[in-house]
Structure formats: structure tokens, C-alpha cells
Task: structure prediction
Amino acid sequence: MTTGINHYHLPATLNDALALLAKHNGAARVIGGGTDYFVDDARESGPDRPEALVDVTRMAGWQDVRSEDGFIVIGCGATHAQIVASPLVRVGGTALMESCGLIGGPQVRNVGTLMGNIAHALPAADGTLALLALGGEIAVSGGTAEAPGLVWMPLALAFRGPGKSAIDSARQIIVAARFVPTGPNEGSAFARIMRPQGVALPIAGLACRVTLRGDEIASAAIAVGPVAPTPFRAAQTEAFLAGKPATSETIETASAILLSESKLRTSPHRATAEYRREVLPVLLREAMLNAIARAAV
Result:
């Protein structure tokens, strides 16, 4: 099949990648593993197709998961499988390990990347929800080869709508993501329900990070999707949970608040709004109880 793509680049450094984007002057597109991009490309036609792809998974220094300056840093070349296997993520970002372990099948996880997950900007993206609950940030480079201009920004600012990223993949690169790992009295967890339909389609997903103070929830961060046009932090539910007993009763009450601030809709390929309304409290209970149990260890 002819796609209109004439060049496929594998730059060895960030500077090389930026130079290639500048050379193509908006006609190239950055990709990671390509597991999302090539599915979309097969459905598209016309002048908006890029003339070149710049695959950033081989860039030196951005292919691993590492500890750096108090953060867990995930490079743009790190695959979902690498994240799942990382001892750093298993201990300090369990929600992310669980979410990346559910993405696609083994073939997809061995190739697909978290940065590609973020760039695709879908409101139900598993890895994105977990990173959002963990308080994640992304590093974006949109400068020149001579001055890369690497800037860290909150993950929540990366999204404009369903499948619409604030990052221009023709001129900018999501180089890495980072988050502060969970510590003593903290835990995180991810829960999802999906329907297999040739590919795994999430009906709903929820990630949380919990900090305990004795038998109370000192703070909670909850990310859920798809309940809004972008990956969503449930601020009202988080505010309610702060200072409440870490019990099933508290979580049951919080479920009603979560439903009230979620804009659930019917999707012909996934589920009805009514079904999602039944599912969301189940996901909140599962993820919160798991995170609380991990925080209490």
C-alpha cells in the first residue's frame, strides 16, 4: 500500500532528530514505536500525510528507565515492556507498571512507547492515566539542533481534546516523562475494564496515588478516562477523600462524587454511558483499596 511517506529516519541523537524536523519544515512527523500511528495512517489519505517519519526510539540517552534527581525518568525510546520490567517502576510507580502491562499484547508492548501513548492524546490511554495520577511531567524539545530547548511541563497541559495533542509532532519531540516515586505510606494502583474487539478497547480506566496518615487518607490523586475530552484528574473526588478514613465506606461515598464530576458518554465501539456509570465505582474501589493496601505496608 502506498502511504505517501518517502523517508524513514532513525536519528542517533536529539540534535539529529531536531535537524531532520527542521529540514522537512513541518512535513515530517515524530513517531515512537508506531503502534498507534500506523493504524491511523492506514485509514488516512490526502495532503496531510507526512513525507517523512522521524523515529526517536534510538536516540542516545533516551532509551531507558532511570532514577535521576529524585525522579523516575522514562525516555522516549523506552517501551511498555521495559517499563513493566523496571524495578524502579514496580516499586515507585506501581500504577504505571500495571497500566503498561495491559496495553495491547506482547508484540505491542515490545514496540510501543509511553511517549507515543501520550502523544496520541486519547482520553482513555492506559499509560497516560497512570502517569497523570502519579503527578507526571513531560520533557518537550522544540528548539533547534544547536539549542534543543528542553522544557519540563505538567502532563495535563499536553492535551487539547480527543486525539488532539498540544505537542506539534511535526516540530516538537516528547523526549521523556518523569514522576516522583511513591515513598513510605504511599501507594498507587490502576484498574481497567475493556472489551476485546480485534484490538483491546478500554471501556474505562482509573489510576490513583494515595498517601496515608495513620488510618486516614492524607491525599489522593485520581485520573480517569474516558470521562472527559482529555485524560481527567478528578479534583472534587480528591478533595473529598483528603482527611477521610481509609475505608470501603469512604470510597463508596466518593464514588458518587466521581460520577457527578465525570461526563460519561456512549461510544458505539466501547460501551454506553449507563454501563460506564455502573463500572466507574467498581474501578475506583479496586484501585483505591489496592493503593491503600500498598501504602499501609
Observations:
- The chain has eleven helices and 14 strands.
